[in-house]
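#struct-pred

JT: dropping the chains for the assembly here, can someone run the whole complex?
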Amino acid sequence: MNQKPLSISANWQATPYALVFLLLFLIPLALILMVSFWNFNDYEIIPAFTLRNYIAIFDGCGSLNEYGDVCVTFKTYFATLRMSFLVWLVTLLLGFSVAYFLAFHVRSANVQTLLFVLCTIPFWTSNVIRMISWIPLLGRNGLVNQALVGAGVVDKPIEWLLFSEFSVVLAFVHLFTMFMIVPIFNSMMRIDRSLLEAANDAGASAWQTLWNVIVPLSRTGVIIGSIFVITMVMGDFVTVGVMGGQQIASVGKIIQVQTSALQLPLAAANAVILLLVALMIIWGLTRLVDIRREL
Amino acid sequence: MSNKKYAPKRASGYLPLLAIFVLFVIFLYGPMITIFILSFQGTDGGLTFPLRGISLHWFGKLAEGLGVVDIAAALKRSLLLGLVVMLITVAFSVLAGLAFRKKLCGGNALFYVTVASLIMPSIIVSLGIGLQFRLLDNGMKYVLEAFGATSMLESFGTSLGMFTSALGAHLTWTLPFGLLIMFAVFNRFNRAYEEAAADLGATPWQTFRFVVFPLIAPSVVGIGMFGFTLSWDEIARTSQAIGDVNTLPLELQGLTTTVTNPAIYALGTLTTLVSFVVMGVTIAAAMWLARKRK
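RK: done, full complex below.
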């Protein structure tokens, strides 16, 4: 055992951790930016500056085409953004309700911990398993269709339950609500309970207390949760692939397909654009709140 | 605890919220339970209900391998990778956690990078690492060519692989969780113990080994669990940053489009069991360590 007084400085202790992020996060990001301006052919990428990739992505985006549609890139981004918005809205409402119930209605600290853990356990299991576990429920011969046909609600099985935008959004909600619950619950647990008492004493209704006290004080949790959910949905390709039956377009899916086809500079350019859009949303989210606070 | 004294009047939304909570838990666990049941589907059974008998038939199919996929080999690879990721995650994040308690130059920047890595869309991280190692390959080939090392050039395949690029991709995902857990631990840590040890003449190493470490040990076990389970299930960051071999979840993802029998549920049950065993071991170990501390 080492008997000498160790004087390892903090910088040395943080070095292995910092190196991982320098070598495997910051440099790769810089490389993406660099390669997005490179050329490529069928066999290899060519280190020569070109705007070709960006031009290819936005080709025809300046105007509507002859059918009155926007270009593919815009279409894909609209679809992805719409999906992100839907998932965000549902996970926010659901996550907030669950967190509120846990934080304010469950009175025993032990029960609270137990229920909280119950909500988080699935996070440590495989996402793909959780996706395919919808097949026996939503498939053409799944439980839902069996029940609906059996009850005479529909004549023949509903097709859009599985491998559709519906099932993709459902799976996202299933997978990501936990990312809302945890930060919002954390914020709510920090709220000084005497504030609620004060609101109550001052004659605020339950809704007024919720809207004017709890919601503003849960702000940090809501923003952290929203950033998590939106960035994960924006860049996803696994859920969209598996639950959409490989039929639904998303920005993440485009990057994945182009990478697999070794069109790396094109994929890199798409990644840069995705990153910019995601940063804009994150910036907007944080701004939105600051403005509200100042009003 | 002040929250015990006051909660909003029970009348305001208790029942609807209770209903939402119960439905949410059913929503969370219901599908998992269905595939658990269906993985014991009889020999003639299909992907949906009804159950046609109960058997271990599909687990047997799994052991034989599904199509061209060798499940047992993928399972071993994933276990090994998970263990390596776990060890590195624990070591690096505990060290970094200790560093953040002192004056650390660039500490703020490192924290922001950590958060950025956590919320960065996984496909971008994966693409970046894949790109990096491919460029490295090109560089290596260029250098070998320049030195005329023809035989080495011929035997050189790619630097992409399980314990190079894939390991790195996993670490960008597990380490942030490790560091954030360390922050949570040290935020609640009472420095008086350390100061007492130092006053009694303990060296920094002794203070860490006999005072600080036993106190944080249960959380360190938790970091290990995060490291293993996150790696065990990771797909998005690995997908573009792995060479010819695949991890179990990647194989599983591929199988979702090709396998149309309950063997895939059996695989689901199996991987979920591994996750649960790891969680169980973690909780047991953390409780044991916490009791030992007293």
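JT: nice. The beta strands of chain A are 39-40, 45-46. The first helix of chain A runs from residue 10 to 35.
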